[in-house]
Amino acid sequence: MLALGFFCVRLLGQGSMTLIPNTLVAQxxxxxxxxxxxxxALFGFAGAMSFPIINTWLIQTWDxxxxxxxxxxxxxxxxxxxxxxxxxxxPEMIGLKPDGLDRPVSDDNPDPLTVKVEDAEEEFTLKEAxxxxxxxxxxxxxxxxxxxxxxxxxxxxxxxxxxxxxxxMAALVLSLMAFVGIPISLISGVILDKVKTNLVLLFIFIIExxxxxxxxxxxxxxxxxxxxxxxxxxxxLERIAFGVIWPNYFGRKHIGSINxxxxxxxxxxxxxxxxxxxxxxxxxxxxxxxxLLTLIFPAVGMICALLAEKPRKTS
Length: 315
Description:
Elements: H1 2-28, H2 33-61, H3 64-86, H4 117-120, H5 126-129, H6 133-162, H7 167-192, H8 197-217, H9 221-250, H10 255-272, H11 274-284, H12 288-294, H13 296-307
Helix pairs in contact: 1-2, 1-9, 1-10, 2-3, 2-7, 2-9, 6-7, 6-9, 6-10, 6-11, 6-13, 7-9, 8-9, 8-12, 8-13
């Protein structure tokens, strides 16, 4: 029963509940899509910071069974009604349009994001998207951070221990990463409304490359804080960039199926991440070799980011 419960939490939590909000935000926002994703990520980071504290209090005050019942009742009686009555798949369902798409194009208003919805974005089906170079380049870009970040997260206490740092320091770095991600999410949302998404992806992989290099030499308090700050910077940018890029490149109409492929690659990447770190530790008695080999992945990500130019449909 425990295995079944965790399987369902993983499937519905990381899978569906990651895919659905990304699709909803993409449907409702176009011109200010980056900022909308930034606000969504802000609440995600806030949850990541507050839920462990609430869980610890519930378990220490009562027990872990009570904590599970508390969240189960909260989901059933609070969030299910909110989702059922408050969420609409598209603004068109209630007679609205996505932001910025209700003013006619003119000499004074040449921005294509302010014309009709059907003219503002080129709509790709999943089959059409798979025929573009950008689609496959983005899939690689999506899977790399999921793999690398999950591997580091699973092994960070052991990595810090081999570097002479304490368990408390590892916990501090994880909290710092979430804390830094909050303002970065808002800032990156504004940036992505103005800068090409693939250039932001390139910047993310450059940061991740230096994060891995820094991890090799993180053996004191100040290096650990610097590592946490850079890791949080990359994480905040990633959340927004990977949510924005699919609808920006392939439109809103088929974003569910396209987003689903991206989410699948992300889950596959995260599932493969921890294993190489564990095997590397068993083979070499440390993490330096596997971290050096992992540098290949952000380097590949830089190349794919440059290749991921926004596609155009041919007539």
